[in-house]
Automatic annotation (TrEMBL):
InterPro entries: AraC_XylS_family_regulators, HTH_AraC, HTH_AraC-typ_CS. The keyword DNA-binding applies. This is Putative HTH-type transcriptional regulator in mcrB 3'region. One of its GO terms (molecular function) is DNA-binding transcription factor activity. It comes from Streptomyces afghaniensis 772. Residues 26-123 form the HTH araC/xylS-type domain. SMART domains: HTH_ARAC (SM00342). Keywords: DNA-binding, Transcription, Transcription regulation.
């Protein structure tokens, strides 16, 4: 193996080689992400896609490394972070992203990221 000119190039080359030998992505995953990202319940998403709960869980686990409920939580958190970064007050952010209240949002942020919401928002990106 030749040394890459820089670490980023080396990682990119490795990723491209691994992707070339990987199985094609599951075509239903885009629909799963869209449905869960829009706030659809996991059970309804599975039904709409003609999958059983176990099938959806297996496919999600294979593709993402966690089940569809965790994926739904992460996607909901992403919606909330996008709103909060645009300056929407936290209580409104929580309601618009699908949380029961601001405390629910704060708990989910800490459980998923290990950081309080304010600290997470202070980080770039």
């Amino acid at each position: 193996m030749n040394a890459a000119p820089d670490p980023a190039s080396g990682l990119e080359d490795l990723a491209l080689r691994q992707a070339a030998g990987a199985d094609p992505p599951d075509p239903l995953l885009r629909q799963v992400v869209a449905a869960l990202g829009a706030g659809r319940p996991v059970a309804a998403t599975a039904d709409e896609l003609g999958l059983g709960a176990r099938q959806l869980h297996r496919r999600s686990l294979t593709a993402f490394g966690y089940g569809p409920k965790t994926l739904a939580r992460i996607l909901r958190l992403r919606r909330a972070l996008a709103l909060a970064r645009r300056g929407v007050p936290f209580a409104d952010t929580a309601a618009r992203a699908g949380y029961a209240d601001q405390a629910h949002l704060a708990r989910d942020v800490r459980e998923l990221t290990g950081l309080p919401l304010g600290e997470l928002l202070a980080r770039p990106g």
